[in-house]
Amino acid sequence: MARSRAPSSCFGAKKQRLDEETTSRSCVPRNGLSAPGVVRREMCYFCFDVLHSHLHNTEPPSAPKTFPNSSYPLFVTWTYGKDEKLRGCIGTFTAMNIHSGLREYAINSAMKDSRFSPITEEEFPHLTCSVSLLLHFEEGKNYQDWQLFFNAVDRT
């Protein structure tokens, strides 16, 4: 059983409500930790753009130049409404390039999470997106060697 020793680097954003003057350098991950050079609000923007193009059958956005294309295990989470109710969350424990990973999992988490029906155009304006990059994996001592809301767990 592998687990992430530290919380994932995660940034959540509601694209249409972000202050355009705030720079990506000043973003704070949801877990309160900073991951300089890794987490960028533009990752959430990119997921919104990917989902928008999918919903409207238009060309997908090109690879962004606003954040690096490093490899990390990652998850994309969609929540809905003011209560931010979970609407989809899918990712991978296998490290992959951020650009292609976000492109793939923005769609998969929105359309293929078996717990939910696919996200619709009508829901799009009410969505919030979170991107989680998983860091610092280590072997767990046993099945109880993890903390709720702190570790990501791979049960393999």
UniProtKB/TrEMBL annotation:
Family annotation (PROSITE patterns): AMMECR1 (PS51112)
Coiled coil: none
Span list, region Disordered: 1-24
Pfam families: AMMECR1
Family annotation (InterPro entries): AMMECR1, AMMECR1_dom_sf, AMMECR1_domain, AMMECR1_N
AMMECR1 domain sequence ranges: 32-156
Protein name: AMMECR1 domain-containing protein
